[in-house]
Amino acid sequence: xxxxxxxxxxxxxxxxxxxxxxxxEQMPNASDKTLQQVVALACSGHPITRIIxxxxxxxxxxxxHS
Length: 66
Hints:
mainly alpha
């Protein structure tokens, strides 16, 4: 686990270091943008485990289509 990714996620989101580390363990290959979208959805009341399941299945947060 990259400490720089954990620090970056902690600085860019309201997550604690332990929460950021857990999220990165769940989604080690996710882009920074996807991780930030997951955190934003979780902060708005969506269950984090459901969001992670949707992302893994390919139905999670995506950039809007233009």
